[in-house]
């Protein structure tokens, strides 16, 4: 049977989600527990492979198992063995044709920056320090230029290996917080470093270093060097993963056309209900 | 000349202040920078040697140097070379007979716990998770039993090597926060694990597992096993270090007699003003 885990992790002390040659990874921690339980290797499949230092408030992974445990027992088995910076928030059995990556039809990311007279050591690794003043209105105006379906070559790492760089942005909002700004973006999917490059570009605009009006031309250039630098990983949170059209429709402007990728039919009901 | 640094650090990824055989320490990070600047080893002396995992909102260290730099240049030299989890907040030249440890006449610690349906991975290492309900009034009533000068053998690690276990507690207050409790204690000094054992004991009282009325007898027992366990390091913050009688007098109830240890005359003015 196929099991879906919903989990959260603090990325500060991980080399990212995916197993690397060296360093702690989220995948390693989960597969280590599964291996002990099954006395055999069990592969997990995430909805998203977050980078080094990136946090997840909501991530999904699925795996196949012959063990017949209740959701509560699975959750306890993981949480009692996981380190303090990963926590399994929910467990459900799902249909065997459900895939956490292929059935993901959208993701929401949040990017947190704080302003202060000097770096706050207690926020190290979990928020980005940015001392400069930013123009909120300019950033929000500029963010709207990303909406819709575009080839985001200019806004992803030059190392991106994937061929199809077309993605759809459903909403992009910058909010003032108590001591800084939150950038909140929802899209069909995001390329390597894409959120961090868009955020840094908006911060440059908010600081008056770049013009909001230039974004369409920068997108059209399909050239990484046309856009701004890459904001640090520590402020980035994978906030939500959309596995159903209903969930996604609730969080984006009414009437927005939802793209379901790979021509797969997206689930129309919560997989936990199946 | 003698230089005093005021610094702050996030203890989550340190093996404590003092250099150990293995692992990152705050002392190592500071002495590494001084060695590079002096092309020679320069020893630093802290006001307090915080344990593994304990944070400092305010710590002092002093060192002697033949380099003639302004306070700004010293601060920049450190902050541009220190890792993100240490920050030098102020630098002053001080008299050569001033010693950051011997002239410390008091310390304030804060202990932070949060309550939630489950562990918050973003608070890992920086606050202690405690899901149980606590009685604030009972904890505050019990905390008053620690005030005054006592032999704190029952409330320090059995591994404490120091002979004289007499310390003076000037104030002890428990506050309700947005999502938990803050324990705030000011004393002449604290023994090994002393704050963490007192806090855990108060938490046990707040949960109805121990009685406030028993504290005087537990102190009198001079036996570590008479008191509660040791609360985790991650919630503990060295919040303030008092180098002058004036500073300490401001933070404790008016008229409280201040003990100056080692018969040394405590500074009566801010050392930065000398």
Task: Write up what this structure looks like.
2 copies of one chain form a homodimer. Helices cover 21% and strands 26% of the residues of chain A. The first copy, chain A, has 274 residues and is of the alpha+beta class. Chain A has 2 domains: 2-94, Pseudouridine synthase I, catalytic domain, N-terminal subdomain (Alpha-Beta Plaits, 2-Layer Sandwich), CATH 3.30.70.580; 106-240, 2-Layer Sandwich (Alpha-Beta Plaits). In chain A, strands 1, 2, 3, 4, 5, 6, 7, 8, 9 and 10 form a 10-stranded mixed sheet that branches. In chain A, α3 packs across α4. The two termini of chain A are 13 Å apart. Chain A binds chain B through residues 8-10, 13, 55, 84-87, 89, 118-119, 121-122, 124-126, and chain B through 8-10, 13, 55, 84-87, 89, 118-119, 121-122, 124-126.
Sequence-ordered SSE layout with sheet pairings:
The structure is a homodimer of 274-residue chains.
Chain A: E1 2-9, H1 26-38, E2 45-46, E3 55-64, H2 71-79, E4 86-94, E5 106-114, E6 128-129, H3 136-143, E7 148-151, E8 166-176, E9 180-187, H4 194-206, H5 215-221, E10 236-242, H6 245-251
Parallel strand pairs in A: 3-10, 5-6
Antiparallel strand pairs in A: 1-3, 1-4, 2-3, 5-9, 5-10, 7-8, 8-9
Helix pairs in contact in A: 3-4
């Amino acid at each position: 049977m196929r099991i879906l885990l919903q989990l959260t992790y603090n990325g500060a002390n991980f080399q990212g989600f995916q197993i690397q040659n060296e360093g702690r990874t989220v995948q390693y921690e989960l597969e280590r527990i599964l291996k002990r339980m099954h006395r055999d290797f069990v592969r997990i499949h995430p909805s998203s492979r977050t980078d080094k230092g990136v946090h997840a408030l909501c991530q999904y992974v699925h795996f196949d198992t012959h063990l017949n445990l209740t959701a509560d027992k699975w959750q306890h088995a993981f949480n009692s063995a996981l380190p303090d910076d990963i926590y399994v928030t929910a467990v459900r059995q799902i249909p065997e044709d459900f895939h956490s990556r292929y059935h993901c039809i959208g993701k929401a990311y949040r990017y947190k920056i704080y302003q202060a007279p000097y770096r706050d050591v207690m926020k190290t690794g979990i928020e980005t320090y940015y001392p400069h003043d930013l123009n909120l209105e300019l950033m929000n105006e500029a963010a709207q230029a990303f909406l819709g379906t575009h080839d985001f070559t200019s806004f992803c790492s030059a190392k991106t290996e994937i061929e199809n760089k077309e993605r759809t942005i459903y909403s992009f909002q910058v909010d003032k917080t108590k001591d800084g700004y939150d950038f909140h973006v929802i899209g069909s999917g995001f390329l390597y470093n894409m959120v961090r490059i868009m955020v840094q570009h908006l911060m440059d605009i908010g600081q008056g270093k770049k013009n909001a009006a230039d974004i369409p031309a920068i997108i059209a250039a399909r050239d990484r060097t046309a856009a701004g630098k890459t904001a640090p990983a520590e402020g980035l949170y994978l906030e939500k993963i959309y596995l159903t059209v209903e969930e996604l429709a609730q969080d984006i402007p009414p009437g927005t056309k939802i793209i379901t990728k790979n021509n797969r039919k997206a689930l129309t009901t919560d997989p936990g209900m199946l």
